[in-house]
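P.,

For your records, the input lines for the assembly:
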Amino acid sequence: ETGVTQSPTHLIKTRGQQVTLRCSSQSGHNTVSWYQQALGQGPQFIFQYYREEENGRGNFPPRFSGLQFPNYSSELNVNALELDDSALYLCASSSLNNEQFFGPGTRLTVL
Amino acid sequence: AQRVTQPEKLLSVFKGAPVELKCNYSYSGSPELFWYVQYSRQRLQLLLRHISRESIKGFTADLNKGETSFHLKKPFAQEEDSAMYYCALSDASGTYKYIFGTGTRLKVLA
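Structure tokens returned:
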């Protein structure tokens, strides 16, 4: 069984640019959630995808968007990057029993 | 407002001493509570969930609905318990999003 994987591991962008982060869910999972973890903070919920549809969203502006594909992998897109977007972005996959399995994260630095 | 509070950023104990990591929550409804752990250079992983009532690696946590708490306890700390611990609440309104606390770093001293 393959665990949750994320790419890239690290990324450096400048203000105003756009970024796409990728997540492959664990085998058998149909739900993917994305979280932002700023330094010294706990993860904050961005949104969740269930069977290719958005299934809930946290307090993040519309420039944070996502996709889920038929194989349940997912992308997180962030437009018009701001300095405060610098964080660790975590992806978690789950099935019906609600336990979320986390990936290793993508560290985004915005200069 | 839905919130998870972990009042201690850092907790240092000596090996063999009891450990209690505090977690309080604010939620209207019947939440599901979790403890996640992150060891150095590893990903977040589930330690406990309240519905399973298991003891994992010697840790236990009891959901106290009256005090809205879900404290994590271990009678005798080991050096390998040193890690970052996050308490999380699952919003069971259909989204099952997690609301995390800010985490407590546990250092077990030799």
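Two observations worth noting. The longest strand of chain A covers residues 87-94. Chain A has a mean pLDDT of 93.

Regards
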